[in-house]
Amino acid sequence: MIINRMSQLFSTFFYIGKAKYAPGTIASFVTFLIWYYFTPENILFRLLIFFGISIIGFFSIKNSLKYYNDKDPQEIVIDEVIGMSLSLLFFTDLGTMFIAFILFRVFDILKPSIIYYSQFYYGAYGIILDDLLAGLCTSVILIKYI
Question: Contact 16/27 with Cβ under 8 angstroms?
């Protein structure tokens, strides 16, 4: 079915999730490049992009999960795209955006505090929530200190 194929395409971020090594980091870095080179500075447009990616990502994860035996498959990386997008939402400077990439990956990998516990929610909610929290923590830190 076309919906299943589209869900796989989006949830793996155009098959980046099938990379043998560090698919989450690769997806985050590609997201960083896309936001830097192709996203205009208009905050309303950026918000529309973020919410669009989030909605499409949620439903693609929800539909794709039935094809995996794991509750958080490594191949699904659209959650990293969503979290990274939240990290970059308010920034257009290359240096700040690169720091956002580094901070987001640290939060996403180490999962300190509430980020760790958020991943235990069921299904697409749990898959996305830890990345949203990592992105939110990244944005808050950068807004406060940069």
Answer: yes
Q: Comparing C-alpha atoms, which of 50, 76, 38, 78 is closest to residue 136?
A: 50
Provide the residue count of the chain. 146
The string of pLDDT tens digits covering residues 96-133 is: 999 999 999 999 999 998 899 998 898 999 999 999 99
Do the Cβ atoms of 111 and 60 come closer than 8 Å? no
CB 130 within 8 A of CB 67: no
The answer to whether 58 and 106 have CB atoms below 8 angstroms apart is no
Cα–Cα distance list, 142 to 12, 36, 81, 90, 122 (Å):
28, 16, 18, 9, 30
